[in-house]
UniProtKB/TrEMBL annotation:
Principal location class: mitochondrion
Name by which UniProt lists this protein: NADH-ubiquinone oxidoreductase B12 subunit
Annotated Pfam families: NDUF_B12
Organism annotation: Pseudovirgaria hyperparasitica
Keywords: Electron transport, Membrane, Mitochondrion, Mitochondrion inner membrane, Respiratory chain, Transmembrane, Transmembrane helix, Transport
Zinc-finger recorded as keyword: no
Signal peptide, first to last residue: none
Region (Disordered): 1-21
Lineage: Eukaryota, Fungi, Dikarya, Ascomycota, Pezizomycotina
Record field: transmembrane: 48-70
Similarity comment text for this entry: Belongs to the complex I NDUFB3 subunit family.
One GO CC term on file: mitochondrial inner membrane
Key word Mitochondrion present: yes
Protein purpose: Accessory subunit of the mitochondrial membrane respiratory chain NADH dehydrogenase (Complex I), that is believed not to be involved in catalysis. Complex I functions in the transfer of electrons from NADH to the respiratory chain. The immediate electron acceptor for the enzyme is believed to be ubiquinone.
Record GO biological process: electron transport chain; mitochondrial respiratory chain complex I assembly
Length: 84
């Protein structure tokens, strides 16, 4: 069975091929600054949480200090049992 003839002359494949980015995009230069330098994806993510790195290191240091130096000494009895 042969394909139906196109009555309008419209070819969707030609439209898709011609609707790509133009070779000389006039707005390319104006949009380029948004994705370079301090506005790159990496820098935007890094600057989203400005004190997170320092806070994480400080908290980890505190946890180590607490685990090493602030241990409670338990002698096998509670404080309420100290009435001899």
């Amino acid at each position: 069975m042969a394909p139906k003839p196109n009555l309008t002359g419209f070819d969707p494949q030609k439209l898709a091929a011609s609707s790509g980015m133009p070779a000389n995009d006039p707005w390319k230069r104006y949009e380029a600054w948004r994705y370079t330098g301090p506005f790159s994806t990496r820098n935007r993510f890094r600057r989203a949480f400005p004190g997170l790195g320092i806070a994480t290191v400080a908290f980890a240091g505190y946890l180590v200090f607490e685990a090493v130096f602030l241990k409670e000494e338990h002698h096998g009895h509670d404080k309420k049992d100290d009435h001899h």
